[in-house]
Amino acid sequence: MAKITFVVGLLLVVLGVAGYVLTGSVHPTALIPCWFGIGLWVCAAAASRDNPGGKRTVDEASAWRMLWMHIAVTLGLLGFLFPGFMAVKDLVKAHVAQVPLPFPAAVHEQLIMALVCLVFVGLCVRSFIAARRARLG
Q1: Cβ distance 10 to 36 under 8 Å?
Q2: First-to-last CA distance in the chain?
Q3: Which end of the chain is least crowded, N or C, by CB within 10 Å?
Q4: Model pTM score
């Protein structure tokens, strides 16, 4: 799961940089997905360490991985909720007022980030359920 976390982090960094560059490098808020992506990279790096902090048992290493993957899925959930809420709010406001979106690129970037993070959260939940079944079964 750490590899998927790293790839999702990479997608978010690319999305943030692309959004910033394609909008004329004027709006630094377009880089917000980069921060989420870097956070996911940190989680992936910490979760993929085999023996953090010296000699640990298999159970302690597993608990370490579990901790960092739960932090990663929390970042993913926040990365879905906040941009998704902002995009839907802007879309509803523009639809009700019958006016075009003032910053359509921002709404597109928010929707893409929300979708990427939603897929990531779904994959994490599926992985967590499979890991629990494997432990108990």
Answers
A1: no
A2: 20
A3: C
A4: 0.89
Residue burial 92-117, b: 16+ Cβ < 10 Å; e: rest: eeeeeeeeeeeeeebbebbbbbbebb
| Closest-CA residue to 47 (of 33, 27, 59, 61) | 61
Q: Are 19 and 33 in contact (CB under 8 A)?
A: yes
Token pair belonging to 51: 């023996």
- Taking only the tens place, the pLDDT of each residue in 61-71 is 788 889 999 99
The residues, any chain, with a CB within 8 Å of residue 65's CB and separated by 6 or more, are: 2, 47, 48
What average pLDDT score do residues 38-50 get? 91
Q: What are the structure tokens assigned to 96, written together? A: 């009700």
